Amino acid sequence: MGGFSAQDLTAIFVMQGFAGLSFFSVLLLMALGLAIIYGQMRVINMAHGEFMVIGAYASYLLSGALRHLPAGTDIAVLLAIPVAFLAAFVAGYLIEWLLIRHLYHRPLDTLLATWGLALIMQQGFRSAFGAREVSVPVPDWLRGSYRPTMIIDIPLNGLAIMLLTVLVTAAVWWFLYRSRWGLRVRCTTANREMSGAVGINTKRVDRMTFAIGCGIAGIAGAAFTTISSTGPTSGSLYIVDTFLVVVFGGAGSLIGTIASAFSIAQAQSVMEFFMGGSMAKVLTLLTVIVILLLRPEGLVASKVRR
Amino acid sequence: MIKLPGFLRGRHGGPLGILILAAVLLVAMPALLDLYRLNLAGRYLTYAFVAVGLVLCWGYGGILSLGQGIFFGVGGYAMAMFLKLEASDPESTRIQTTPGIPDFMDWNRITELPWFWVPFESLAFTLVAVLVLPAAFAFVIGYAMFKRRVSGVYFAIITQALAVVLTILIVGQQGYTGGINGITDLRTLKGWDIRDESAQYLFYYLNAVLLIGCVLLGRWVLNGKYGRILTALRDREDRVRFSGYDVADFKIFIFCLAAFMSGIGGAMFTLQVGFMSPSFVGIVPSIEFVIFAAVGGRLSLLGGVYGALLVSYAKTLFAEAYPQLWQVMIGTVFILVVLVLPYGLASVYQRYGKRVLSRLKGSRRAPPPPPSSLPQDSATEGRR
Question: Distance between CA A290 and CA A295 in Å, rounded?
Fold first, then answer.
């Protein structure tokens, strides 16, 4: 590592590490929804990225609507999160009812059908919002950066997204492991027939789970718009990474998903500095694939009998 | 009655389907289409190689690969590298800083032919590479995954990630691969102009004959004992394993066979179209190949060919006139095929076409049973 002093290297690692943390936040928010959906229903949702884009466009519309109010951008940024969640939730609910419920027990077919759905949704976005990328105005208090030393520079919106991710992850954990609803979800995941036999409406649980998974993707979209602009195909850029996160983490395991999102995002972000974006991505993906071959059940194996 | 050889008889249709296909490809299309359209049809038929391979490994083996673009690309790039080296002889590249190397390398300030390009100066090596490299890639991928019992959804996602990796590599290593533009400006094959009329016709016929050969090969494989075991392991993998078969070996073989066919398709694509680019390697083309097989019928080798022709033709027809409509259409087709017609157009023919045919013949035989060997429940779980 000639050419870099020890101090430079530390600064690089801290800043790239932090850039990795923002990437990690988006990946984790995306992967949480996907992992819940896949873990419970064995449904591969290729349109998950498009639900994220729904969230992003929802917060874009909201900021447009509130633009003329005093302190409109501040309110919009705060309101964007529940609104994005709701928009993606409703869309997910409808799509589960229209399409997904006909495809349970055919995981490979859900993959194909949701890919078709993704194509249709992308075109829908393009017709409604144009092919140009849009972004949301960020209020001043999110725009600055935090400078602990002279050369380290950490953007505040990245910090805010991290905070949001922590809150959402905590909420998902609480939902899954501390609420009645989560109990039903875990029951259905573990044994669908028995859950039905003891009086759990598994179809309703499926629909709610799918909708909530999509809603979390919507939150990811709202967070995404504050660091980068959104276009009709933004979602599809993340879908392969997100799937690898879910598979790598061990489907259906919250801790595994967090750990794998963290390691993938960090590896990519730190390597990016030394060898450029494309090689970093190639190396990260290949490493993940090799580790998956050595340990096909993922980082944290779920203890579910099937 | 005459005893027919294995690849013509048996559960996967009689010789009639093959004869009709041969008549359509070798007689009807060259007679009815002008050279431009025939060349387009030839391009679609190169996709059919991949679709036939997918029918074998997805339809019968239950292995959904979302990375068939990898093998199409490897075959295509191997052929393109040979043609490119021939096109960049020192004479025609004398204005470059380093004459004798492909132009894109010169633009990227590479002064020497990279080592992995050197063998592609030989036509014999290139032809062997086209036939062997895709299958070798598939063997490595398949061996690594199936021996570890990675299958189903996991396999699909990992192959998709590999297609992404290969695309990023090709685009990123511009000096070695031609980058996003791919390898272009391919003119001659051993001094013979591949763009003139006679060459175009010849490639079309060669393509059609090779494709029919692949269909016959696939049929021969399926009609044997191997085909039955393949279907069995798709439907009840654990039972086949408990019966003493090494499931992984069977899967690796069919995956390699599919890759082998895709590689031939890729090489024929390069020859007929005159370039190869990463846009035929990544996620989108790989999924399109699956659409072809799904629309044609995932249990029908002939269906794969017709699916590739029909969907690609529709794409050319609509994508040029109404690009926005096309994306919605292909998405809708995808959803409808999966929801309403999981076994594609071939199942429509099996159910209604044959009845019509037998009525035309005036015979009163009972209509044939619905397509044989449908999986009872394709709940191929990710892993168990």
Answer: 9
